Amino acid sequence: MFEKIMIPVDLNHIDGMQKSLEAAAWLARQYDATVYYVTVAGRVPNRAARTPEELARHLADFARQQGEEYGMTTDSRPMDSTDVTIELDDKLVQAQKEIGADLVVMASHIPGVADRLHLISSNAGELAQRLPVSVFILR
Known about the structure:
Rossmann fold; five-stranded parallel β-sheet; 5 helices
């Protein structure tokens, strides 16, 4: 049913993504699918990496570790952005197309006051509306 599963990750917040990581791994094993870990980052140093090249290495290491831990095939796809806040959704749509992912599994935050006031947007909701494939959103 699924061959390529894409999972957007933020290496700074892996601890809040455990459900989505486990769900993607379970689905990958059920369907013998490859999981593609995607991150979108700018050129500004952050906690995950000082350079885009270092981030690519960290993401590849994370993908390898997930593959070993869950017994599945993995790959990684860092996406470069000029402004992550503005381009995040577009870059994730681009990654899905480039990978040819037939399922996206992603974490979402618990809605709060900022959501009700429309101060922040839902990346998961945006992708569910824009992508031509299924999007599995977990909290």
